[in-house]
């Protein structure tokens, strides 16, 4: 259950699933694994409730994957709880949503997970007066609050804040507000999509991308799905994220090579796609642990919660009590390598909790 565009592109996710089955087969413990796709169309809780009901009742699915916006995750929680359908969240980041159902687990990330490390990194690297600009919706508010609290607790003070409408914003007035506060850095968060390249262009056009003010942000600001569209405006931005296609591990290099061999080098798999890959790992391992016989959702959840394994992103663990994800957070800088814009990791915060 994903949107065909953002934040977890259904086409890329479909490719990831196909690649996983190509590498691991389509049967586990005698069970044939089949996938039924539905497009959520975006944050659309009423539609997603109907889709979930259809998948559970008519299609008789055993597991749901990918509710991709917080309103959608919240909307189907009562359904999956009543029907006892394990659901792996691969595209919603609001803190605490996994607690809405005992049948939820998350392989994506939570809002605070990358924000706290980035605030710590910013303060320790000499940024004392950042301006905070976020999209004006719930995850943006959470991001703003987390960054300000973490930064302030360390002794820093923000220069100012701005909340930008998520639909058709006029960025020029916000650029002037940033200039007026004379910050030494700008921390930005916008959801993956058209707002990110629009912001980066406005930032550059306003002359703020001049080396005097450091631009930092969440991984959404340099996501592989849009970094090419942003172009040179993205160069030098420092972000905190959980996955980069440039992550330097043997497992990731093999994953990137296998994906490129099957589907080409673009579009690249980003954090949402890797969350789907890891959801597949969780599903296959959980089914193998049950062996043959009738699928038991409670046994599956008992296995999933507490599971840890090595992912292309690095070590990943599902908390045995909450079902939420613990993982590394990487501080990265956008650089051009071999003619391609990439998120180059240079510092790691290990085993960061989702809370």
Task: Give me the Rg, rounded.
Answer: 20 Å
Structural class, from secondary structure content?
A: alpha/beta
The helical percent reads 25-40%
Looking at the overall shape, the CATH architecture of the largest domain is: 3-Layer(aba) Sandwich
Oligomer: single chain
The CATH class of the largest domain, by name, is Alpha Beta
The overall strand count is 14
Quick one: CATH superfamily of the largest domain?
Answer: Response regulator
Inertia-based shape: globular
Total of helices: 11
Summarize the biggest pleated sheet: 9 strands, mixed
β-strand percent reads 15-25%
Keywords: Plasmid, Signal
Domain Leucine-binding protein: 23-335
Protein name: ABC transporter substrate-binding protein
Pfam family, one: Peripla_BP_6
Notes on the protein architecture:
Residues 23-335 form the Leucine-binding protein domain. It comes from Cupriavidus basilensis. The protein is 39% helix and 20% strand. The chain starts with 9 loop residues before the first helix and ends with a strand. It contains eleven helices and 14 strands. The model is unreliable at 4-8 (pLDDT under 50). The chain has helices at residues 10-24, 45-57, 70-83, 112-124, 138-153, 171-181, 195-205, 227-230, 250-263, 271-290, 297-304, and strands at 27-28, 31-32, 64-65, 87-89, 104-106, 130-135, 160-164, 185-189, 214-218, 238-241, 308-311, 314-318, 325-337, 340-352. Helix 2 packs parallel to helix 3, helix 4 runs parallel beside helix 5 (138-153) and helix 10 (271-290) packs across helix 11 (297-304). Strand 12 (314-318) and strand 13 form a beta hairpin. The strands form three sheets. Strands 6, 7, 8, 9, 10, 11, 12, 13 and 14 form a nine-stranded mixed sheet that branches. The protein has a three-stranded parallel sheet with strand order 3-4-5, with helices on both faces. A two-stranded antiparallel sheet has the order 1-2. The chain is an alpha/beta fold. It has two domains: 10-109 and 248-323, 3-Layer(aba) Sandwich (Rossmann fold), CATH 3.40.50; 112-241 and 330-352, Rossmann fold (3-Layer(aba) Sandwich).
